[in-house]
Amino acid sequence: MKTEGLSINLATVRHQYDLKTGVEALVKHGIRGVSPWREHVQAVGMTEAARIITSNGMKVTGYCRGGLFGGADAAGQQALIDDNKRMIDEGAAIGADCLVMIGGGMAPGSRDIKTARGRYLDGMAAILPHARACGVALAVEPLHPMYAADRGCISLLSEAIDICEQLGEGSGVAIDAYHLWWDPDLENQITRAKGKILAHHICDWLVPTKDMLLDRGMMGDGVIDLPRIRRMVEAAGFTGYQEVEIFSAENWWKRPGDEVIRTCIERYNTVC
To answer: Would the pLDDT of 164 be above 80?
Structure first.
């Protein structure tokens, strides 16, 4: 089965592999796209992470995850700005196509989501010059509205595009089918995002969903029309990798890593 154009976000096999063993497992299966998380890179350091990735001929389709500006007070906001600049340095070292930047939530006790969204925009504007200097693009990733209070105050693709239009060069969007499949205006917004799509993440929405965060489905096991969304994304000019990102505490994280990767390949060929 073909693996060209397939990337695996290492969250999908978070409990099976570290960066080195994960990359080696992907290479064994003929996969050349990978998206690590900061925990993977920081565990070995930027230099060793870059060596692992480069020596295995891997394409880094994304680096997860930054942003999280919403809800911080002034001191906390500056700390987040500084930390995101360090993440930009890490992303540049490993050759990441983009950094995935989520919104963050509201401050404890707050009901002011508008302020949280404003802090996200301010934070992104503060780090963008450093990202441009490092040659790393920032991908605004809207999350499903169920995360708006504590994890992702940017929920709609239209919001993400608005932010990119305000930020300008060096910013774009990450389109994650899990977070956006339900949006009745999705096709129009994907069309609007032409030229700004930096990443496309795939998995499936299970019915019922047993956990808000950790019960994503393997492609084909849920209700998302993944081929339709892929067609829309590609019609908008995206030619990059299809990146599988699955958080699955009670299913896929408990299976052998080889089985998970083989299943990703099979579903990439038969479902996506």
So the answer is: yes
- Helix (H) or strand (E) run with residue 157 in it: helix 157-167
Domain ranges of the chain: 6-270
∠ CA 239-243-246, nearest 5°, is 160
181 vs 187: CA distance, rounded Å: 10
176 near 141, Cβ under 8 Å?
yes
Cβ contact 150:113 at 8 Å: no
Cα(77)–Cα(55) distance, rounded to whole angstroms? 37
Q: Which class for 266: exposed (0-12), middle (13-18), buried (19 or more C-beta within 10 A)?
A: middle
Question: Residue 97's closest CA among 223, 202, 199?
Answer: 199
To the nearest 10°, the Cα dihedral for 145, 260, 35, 155? -10
- Digit-coded pLDDT (tens) for 181-220: 999 999 999 999 999 999 999 999 999 999 999 999 999 9
Q: DSSP letter at 118? A: H
Give the global pTM. Answer: 0.97
Strand partners, 152: 104
> How deeply is 55 buried, as exposed, middle or buried, from its count of CB atoms within 10 A (0-12, 13-18, 19+)?
exposed
List strand residue ranges (DSSP E) for the chain, in order: 6-9, 33-35, 59-60, 63-70, 98-104, 137-140, 171-176, 197-202, 242-244
Architecture of domain 6-270: Alpha-Beta Barrel (3.20)
Q: Whole-angstrom Cα distance, residue 199 to residue 239?
A: 9
Looking at residues 128-146, what average pLDDT do you find? 98
Q: Rounded to an integer, what distance in angstroms lies between the CA atom of residue 73 and that of residue 71?
A: 7
